[in-house]
Amino acid sequence: MRPPAAPPPGDPDMRDAGAQPERTRLAWRRTTLTFAVAAALAVRSAVERADAPGYAAAALGALAWLAFLSVAHRRIRALAHGRAPVTDGSPVQAAAVCALAMTLFGTVLLW
After folding, report:
1. From CA 43, how far away is CA 23, in angstroms rounded?
2. What is the C-alpha separation between 46 and 29, in angstroms, rounded?
3. Average confidence (pLDDT) over 69-94
4. What is the pTM of this model?
């Protein structure tokens, strides 16, 4: 008698996620909080600097934070059901673009 064939890779019915969705959800929350602190420090720096490029960089940094918050919130809601849905990587790409934008705006504030 032959053993049963292994399920195909990526079969959602055979996946045991364990605590991974909860850890991922908490990581998204921590990252969002860290991003919010960075945006708040950027606004504070712009107010102390008191010039137009500083205000523009702080405003764009706040917009980058709002975009990141939107991406993170959608991902957290998707993870709330206990199983991480398979994605095409677009949330990670969007989060990376927001982080790079925030880095650019921070550089403008420090320059």
Report:
1. 30
2. 26
3. 77
4. 0.66
Alpha helices in 1-111 (DSSP H): 20-49, 52-79, 90-110
How far, in Å, are 33, 53, 60, 78, 104 from residue 28 at the CA level? Answer: 9, 30, 21, 12, 22
Phi-psi region of 89 (alpha: psi -120 to 50; beta: other; left: phi over 0): left
Give the model confidence (pLDDT) of 10-59 as tens digits: 555 555 556 777 888 888 889 888 888 888 888 888 888 788 878 888 88
Query: How many whole angstroms separate alpha carbon 63 and alpha carbon 29?
Result: 18
Query: Distance between CA atoms of 95 and 49, rounded to whole angstroms?
Result: 28
